[in-house]
Amino acid sequence: MTGPRFTDLAASLPASVPFVGPEAQERARGRPFRARVGANESVFGPSPRAAAAMAAAAADAWMYGDPENHDLRHALAEAEGVAPENVVVGEGIDGLLGYTVRLTVAPGDAVVTSDGAYPTFNYHVAGYGGVLHKVPYRDDREDIDALLAKAAEVDAKLLYLSNPDNPMGTWHDPAAIEAMLARLPQGTLLVLDEAYAQFLPEGAQPRIAVDDPRAIRFRTFSKAYGMAGARVGYGLGAAPLITAFNKVRNHFGMSRISQAGALAALEDGAFLAETIARVAAARERIAGIAGDNGLSALPSATNFVAVDCGADGDFARAVLAGLLAQGVFVRMPFVAPQDRCIRISAGTQADLDLLAAALPRALAEARAEK
Amino acid sequence: MTGPRFTDLAASLPASVPFVGPEAQERARGRPFRARVGANESVFGPSPRAAAAMAAAAADAWMYGDPENHDLRHALAEAEGVAPENVVVGEGIDGLLGYTVRLTVAPGDAVVTSDGAYPTFNYHVAGYGGVLHKVPYRDDREDIDALLAKAAEVDAKLLYLSNPDNPMGTWHDPAAIEAMLARLPQGTLLVLDEAYAQFLPEGAQPRIAVDDPRAIRFRTFSKAYGMAGARVGYGLGAAPLITAFNKVRNHFGMSRISQAGALAALEDGAFLAETIARVAAARERIAGIAGDNGLSALPSATNFVAVDCGADGDFARAVLAGLLAQGVFVRMPFVAPQDRCIRISAGTQADLDLLAAALPRALAEARAEK
């Protein structure tokens, strides 16, 4: 008896996992974390109106969701000031990145990103046989000039940029993003991951015409809207590209409950503003805790803060391990020199009290190990 | 300014939609349907315990779901009497079919199915450049001998069979499925879609060893469990194949709310049994309504009934249009001669009262058109 014949590409892929979830870590340690501030989730939760809409939709879950995501796409179009034809809804930005790669990347095609940027994008590129070309960060920011130069050099199909950046929290001036678009090589699509866009300072949103065929922008309900578990992301772009998603997407992939929740979340602007304010306060508190321990916090336009542990990656990994051991779930950048930092998501007061209590010991133990 | 460069494959694909949703039809007609019995959803809803679990999980939707689906996979493994390594959970059977095709089908590879079987499977095969070879139904059932012969002839990577069958509701004896497996060509994977398995008569479940590398079976919470809108399907198969899904799946694709709902649904065996009994009663009522109108109902081991309208596809399409016009959402097979039938999902008493009231007029108008 023989098993299935995998494609050459599938056979060559590792059974890789872009991220180990906190639940797996909890199972391994045998007890739950006391603070969950590692995955850039929003501890401030979904809007109560969104939660109520999802709870109400639960009994109606016998019906498939609308495969066209009509109501949500139209509401998003109105909110973003674009046409519904410029909006595609999918199973989180992760799902939409996968579709984007599938539409554009054939085996051997070149793709450019930063070394240490979003691993799930890399997972998709590898998964479709694309060849990743990475350029280093520069001063803890993605290096636009280097990305553009590499894209031109390798004739990239896609160029990935997250703005604000994950995992560092840094961002580029709108003018820099707008200038980048103008300098993009012919035939390279800018994949602009704006998962954290709502946290940008006033006036820091780049102005990109939605029907500009050179870019697609991704947004999500997972961060500022506090709905990571609902899996709702969306893309904004020129109609021909947006329509192309209908060639490959899982048309019935969206949860009906999530559709209802996202619609309600979109209507609760007051809650969104409140979350953004709470996140800003939490960022300040994290920076304060860092400072109290002699560490520095990087500026952030996201719902997390990269804290520079002041030494190398091994030291930061030891600090991270010390926090995890004390029940504080955090993550950190994978690549040097960014891996001198740990990345702490905005938490509740209670979460950050735990962080404040745990960090000194984690640092002391890490220093003792050296 | 140029747009993205699509792959040759993506450029060649139509922006096809496997199914138009009832919501789109409602938008086109300008008013809602009065009975929703066209998509084989379960009008009897999710288990109240599942609905309560989903409602309770709504406020926790700020957390990503466990990307390993650990608890649900373990509960399914226990319920199915297999190991967790034999279970993959995904965004509905649709999502899992897509991953299966992606793992095995390279452009030009042969895939075998029945003409008129599940179009979403065909959508995925076309989407990865596979070449579909279709054999006709025989006596309103998928033709196992013809499928096997075609698979051998074209050296198929995949052979799709739904048992019980959608859209006809028919099924094969377990011995026939088991014998099919033994006769499968080397290197052909049997994709056994068991979305409706819970509705099979006692003793009609084929016995297939879960670690048999020649088959993968798909089940879902969308039908008997009444949770189509939650998007939870699962596959059962040999561990090497199941593990391979980790190479390509959207690891964070599952809604946390849906994970909680599926777990609770699995624990409510009494509700499942009740739904199966209600569906059986509804099938009898649909057959009775058909009989009252001089039509015959096909035997069904699903939550729907194919009703033979007694003439050709054009006539059945006219009947269908008459029902839709009266607010009764139903669908029908796409391909002759099965398209002499319309397909009616199990409904509530009120749904079937509407069907009983609407069918005579739909038939009369269709006859007048001839």
TrEMBL record, chains A, B:
UniProt keyword terms in alphabetical order: Aminotransferase, Pyridoxal phosphate, Transferase
Every Aminotransferase class I/classII large domain range: 38-359
Gene Ontology molecular functions: pyridoxal phosphate binding; transaminase activity
Entry superkingdom: Bacteria
Transferase keyword on record: yes
Biological or metabolic pathway of the protein: Amino-acid biosynthesis
Pfam families: Aminotran_1_2
Cofactor: pyridoxal 5'-phosphate
Entries under CDD domains matching the protein: AAT_like
NCBIfam families referenced in this protein's UniProt entry, alphabetically: PRK08153.1 (NF006014)
Similarity annotation: Belongs to the class-II pyridoxal-phosphate-dependent aminotransferase family. Histidinol-phosphate aminotransferase subfamily.
Protein name as it appears in the record: Pyridoxal phosphate-dependent aminotransferase
Organism name: Psychromarinibacter sediminicola
